[in-house]
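We give the chain.
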Amino acid sequence: MGKIIFLVEGATNSGSSSLDHHQLGKF
């Protein structure tokens, strides 16, 4: 499930903020 959320967030943010990616990784 985490991977799906990560992919969705990544597509939406388009890697706009690295901090967001790190927070998602923790989840």
User: Anything to note?
Assistant: The mean pLDDT is 57. The helical segments are 2-13, 18-26.
